[in-house]
Amino acid sequence: MKTSLLVIGGGAAGLMAAGTAANEGVETIVLERNERPARKVMITGKGRCNVTNNCSSLQELIQNVPRNGRFLYGAFSRFMPADVIDFFESRGVELKTERGNRVFPVSDNAVDIVDALVSYTKSRARIMNGRATKLLLDDGKIKGIETENSEVIYADKVIIATGGLSYPGTGSTGDGYSLARQAGHNITELVPSLVPLEIHEGFCTDLMGLSLRNVATKVVDTESGKTVYTDFGEMLFTHFGVSGPMILSASAHMRSMKSGKYKIYIDLKPALTIEQLDARILRDFSENTNKNFINALNSLLPKKLVPVIVKLSGINLTTKVNQITKEQRRRLAELLKGLCVTVTGFRPVSEAIITSGGVDVSQINPKTMESKLAGGLYFAGEVIDADAYTGGFNLQIAFSTGRLAGLCAAEKITEERSYNYE
After folding, report:
1. Backbone dihedral angles phi then psi of residue 265, each to the nearest 5 degrees
2. Sign of the dihedral through C-alpha 400, 406, 408, 411
3. Which of 28, 240, 273, 402 is deepest in the core (most CB within 10 A)?
4. Mean pLDDT over all residues of the chain?
5. Which of 118, 28, 64 is nearest to 414 (CA)?
6. Cβ(391)–Cβ(102) under 8 Å?
7. Residue pair 339/266 in contact by the 8 Å Cβ criterion
8. How far apart are CA 62 and CA 168, in angstroms?
9. Structural domains in the chain plus CATH codes
10. What's the whole-model pTM score?
């Protein structure tokens, strides 16, 4: 079998790359190991699909990519969030912008995004079911691939857009890293990012299922003493530790993870200063003067959190509130402003939203997404060592790099075809 362009992987980046190249008039095949393409897109944003982030500038976009953001300057410049929004809306998918500039389909259904992508690709390109296991290289140039069924597909250009290691059930099992190594590429350390965290303190298990909203978090590197991340929003306690939007974003800042290196301080009352909170506690106590301490916090805290805070405060749960000293009350306020948990590690990469690490960007041309080591080989999406925070930024990376790889591969094919005709 022979084609001008072969795209390995039918996710967000692969479909965008293939559809772009095919619409430039290049014969294109997408090789997707799943029967249905874009399975991971279907589950993003809890099934709603946070398709991009409607941020105002290129600089802001890059600032939200802590891992090799500058490498993406060219890709972002040629396909910004406004272009992504226009792409989907011009194909009948109405979008809306929510808190944090997160963009979702009005329908709140990821299938609308997937259908638009698949339709765009299928209009000109062919989607085949199969799994690439070997690159065919000759004198430093790509010639095609071999599948796990020993089928050979010859291609003038190949784009690897296989995703990372996260959510392996969607087909992201690291195939692209193996293929990249065959072409001589280095793969930087693969670790989970945007992932829940395992916590040392046992009270997290007691709080399992409790969601906290409008709280603030601060992540401190205990080795350097520096605050590496702060945020405000929502988090969730689980049987293993903590999760939720703030925690997932915080995980992207935790490098060289080891048990005890990071502590998270949770401010349960961020709208109040320590003095204002002390006054609030004093007011609650004055209204419950003859009650036991454990029964005097229900208006201040979620019910599930009360026994945990009581225990951590060091105040006996049966102490009458009118017997609690000013010093004890102050320590209670400080606890509420800085509930501390110790991170012991990431959850497995299979539970991460994205994989941090991947094909070394120093070996990829940022202006084209073409390999510097193997002519005609391109990369797009999560397989590249570049990852961002939550909020639609990672899908934007997929769309931008996919678009650029598709355009540049198509331009090179057209250019080479014209040269050969001459």
Report:
1. -105, 125
2. negative
3. 402
4. 95
5. 28
6. yes
7. yes
8. 28
9. 2-191+356-421 (3.50.50.60), 196-346 (no CATH)
10. 0.89
